[in-house]
Amino acid sequence: MIGKLADNSYEIVVIRPALDLFDMVQESFRLLKPGGVLIIDQVLSNGKVVDPTQRDPESIARRDAVKVIKDDERWSSTVIPVGAGVLVANKLA
């Protein structure tokens, strides 16, 4: 279904993490207008993501997604470490 949504048409996309989080981030970039906002809820998984000893698939997927967004110059992002954490990213390009 998400593949049928129009490119560059949305102001905001909200994601709840899953194992395919990387793909969800890529699709979100496609869907968002320039200046649009991506929100990923529960991105820190109550501290598990910042703990390198946590190697479960969910923690790895979240850790990788945060790194991809942080390293991609098309995004400006911040992580708000409240509760399970929220990532807020602004699409620049």
Q: How many structural domains?
A: 1
The parts where pLDDT drops under 50 for at least 5 residues are: none
Order of helices and strands: EHEHEE
Classified in CATH, the superfamily is Vaccinia Virus protein VP39
By secondary-structure content and strand pairing, the structural class works out as: alpha+beta
Averaged pLDDT, please? 93
Proportion of beta-strand residues: 25-35%
First-to-last CA distance: 24 Å
Largest sheet strand order: 1-2-4-3
What is the class in the CATH system? Alpha Beta
What's the tally of helices?
2
The CATH architecture designation is: 3-Layer(aba) Sandwich
**Structural shape:** globular
Stated plainly, the CATH topology is called: Rossmann fold
Question: How would you portray this structure in words?
Answer:
- The protein is of the alpha+beta class.
- It has 2 helices and 4 strands; from the N terminus they run βαβαββ.
- Strands 1-2-4-3 form a 4-stranded mixed sheet, covered by helices on one side.
- β1, α1 and β2 form a beta-alpha-beta unit.
- The longest helix is centred in the C-terminal third of the chain and has 15 residues.
- The radius of gyration is 13 Å and the shape is globular.
